[in-house]
Design goal:
This protein is an all-alpha fold and 197 residues long. It has a domain of 124 residues. The protein has seven helices and no strands. The longest helix has 48 residues. It is elongated. The relative contact order is 0.12.
Length: 197
């Protein structure tokens, strides 16, 4: 009577848990959304759970500093005819270059900052043409070269504007992230009694 030999294969085509690469497991856990609604942005752009990114914080702080320095730059522009009249020759170039930069910023931010904004490039050109001279003429502010008290106050106020812009950016991103979650939870609570009936 022939006997059947029970041969077991030592090779298995099915993947086992021990063969899963630790990097893939960690990557899958990193992509898991904290709200369980899809892939989390944390794995893609190193943001926290509110969608706040380090580049966004830096950009917000830089924008706040840039806008906060404008009044002092325009003061320097107003005193330039009395202190250095030849410096006014740079004003037309600053206006033109600011308009070009404004158009470039409007183009690069077309998908992230108010995508449906009408006359986007016109607004960007006007904003750049108005603000860049105020930034470039900060060197003509009284006492800027000597590092006097007035210039220290000017840079201190601009620095505080940068911090305030960073805080505003964080709070706006936080509200924009938590608002859909609150609406989703409210909808679930409203549908729960209906589902139990």
């Amino acid at each position: 009577m022939p006997t059947a030999h029970n041969t077991t294969s030592t090779r298995s085509d099915a993947p086992t848990n021990s063969r899963v690469a630790p990097e893939r497991l960690l990557r899958a856990l990193a992509r898991k959304s904290p709200f369980r609604v899809g892939e989390s942005p944390y794995a893609r752009n190193m943001s926290n759970r509110y969608g706040v990114t380090i580049p966004g914080l830096v950009l917000a702080g830089g924008t706040g500093f840039y806008l906060g320095i404008q009044p002092f730059g325009y003061i320097g522009l107003l005193v330039t005819p009395f202190t250095d009249p030849a410096g006014l020759l740079a004003l037309p170039g600053a206006v033109l270059f600011g308009a070009l930069i404004g158009c470039g910023v409007a183009y690069l931010s077309r998908n992230r900052i108010k995508p449906n904004l009408a006359h986007r490039y016109r607004h960007g050109a006007i904003l750049g043409a108005v603000t860049l001279p105020g930034y470039l003429f900060i060197g003509h502010f009284p006492g800027a070269e000597e590092g006097g008290t007035a210039s220290q106050w000017a840079f201190g106020i601009a620095f505080c504007c940068g911090i305030a812009a960073t805080i505003v950016y964080y709070q706006r991103r936080k509200r924009a992230t938590l608002a859909p979650r609150a609406r989703r939870l409210a909808q679930q609570q409203a549908d729960q009694p209906t589902a139990t009936r």
